[in-house]
């Protein structure tokens, strides 16, 4: 019913990335990657794997003039890589993140002017996506545990920006791990966001491991998605609690709706 993908950055970590990609593909999943500048793109393209999502920028932000220009410029570079990998979705965040997932420039207070600037920047990104036939997805994050200081982090924020831009080439990467920490009420959130979802990412809370290791009842969310007739991608962006193959089996089991 759903297309299932797995983030190669977080599982089979004892293997080189290209071997992780091949293993995920062999197990019947699509593949997601983060910062493409850290990978051998030619090797990934030769792997035969189907790529679902990748980071869609190198630097930049949504709220400053120079940051917006950098975001659009590096988004254009990312599109060229996405074409080589036949990857349809490129992921964005509320601001540039460093190697630890922390904002390059923390934003303690988001002002009204910042909201208007973010809308304008995302409109430029959506127009870029339309010209090249790709979809940019704005991901919600949590500021309580993993990403303090990121603006426009909550799913309510990312959804408001996507609705304001109102372009099918800008969608929501609804990360339910982050949403559980920051907002909760996940099934109602899924129903509210459904028309704007480009992809869903999952991990359990606490620990950011595969479904079944924490407090989120993912089979109920899978049934809610099925009732909404969602047929898109669900990506596992989670650490394996133990054996990686078992983690992927648990992920598939959680999103298998009878």
Q: Summary?
A:
With 258 residues, the chain is α/β, with parallel strands linked by helices. Helix content is 41%, strand content 15%.
Task: Fill in the CATH topology.
Answer: TIM Barrel
Q: Can you say what the CATH homologous superfamily is?
A: Divalent-metal-dependent TIM barrel enzymes
CATH class: Alpha Beta
Mean pLDDT across the residues is 97
Portion of residues within helices: 40-55%
* Radius of gyration from CA coordinates: 17 Å
* Biggest sheet: strand arrangement: 1-2-3-4-5-6-7-8
Which range does the strand content fall in? Answer: 5-15%
Q: Strand-and-helix sequence, N→C?
A: EHEHEHEHEHEHHEHEH
Largest sheet: 8 strands, parallel, barrel
Helical stretch tally: 9
Overall outline: globular
Distance between the amino and carboxyl termini: 9 Å
Q: How many DSSP E strands?
A: 8
- State the low-pLDDT regions, or none: none
Q: In terms of structural class, how would the helical and strand content be classed?
A: alpha/beta
Any idea how many domains? 1
């Amino acid at each position: 019913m759903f297309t299932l993908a797995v983030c190669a950055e977080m599982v089979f970590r004892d293997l080189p990335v290209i071997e992780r990609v091949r293993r995920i593909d062999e197990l019947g999943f699509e593949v997601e990657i983060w910062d493409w500048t850290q990978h051998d793109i030619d090797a990934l393209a030769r792997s035969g794997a189907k790529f679902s999502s990748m980071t869609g920028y190198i630097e930049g932000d949504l709220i400053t003039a120079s940051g917006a220009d950098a975001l659009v410029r590096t988004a254009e570079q990312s599109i060229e890589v996405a074409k080589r990998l036949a990857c349809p979705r490129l992921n964005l965040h509320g601001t540039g993140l460093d190697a630890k997932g922390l904002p390059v420039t923390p934003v303690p207070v988001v002002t009204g002017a910042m909201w208007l600037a973010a809308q304008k920047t995302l409109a430029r990104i959506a127009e870029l996506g339309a010209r090249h036939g790709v979809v940019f997805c704005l991901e919600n994050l949590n500021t309580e545990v993993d990403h303090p200081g990121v603006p426009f982090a909550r799913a309510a924020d990312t959804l408001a920006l996507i609705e304001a831009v109102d372009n099918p080439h800008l969608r929501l990467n609804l990360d339910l791990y982050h949403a559980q920490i920051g907002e909760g009420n996940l099934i109602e959130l899924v129903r509210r966001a459904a028309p704007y979802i480009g992809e869903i990412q999952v991990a359990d809370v606490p620990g950011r491991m595969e479904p079944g290791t924490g407090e989120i009842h993912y089979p109920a969310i899978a049934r809610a998605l099925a009732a909404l007739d969602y047929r898109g991608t669900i990506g596992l962006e989670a650490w394996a609690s133990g054996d990686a193959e078992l983690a992927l089996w648990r992920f598939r089991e959680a999103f298998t709706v009878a």
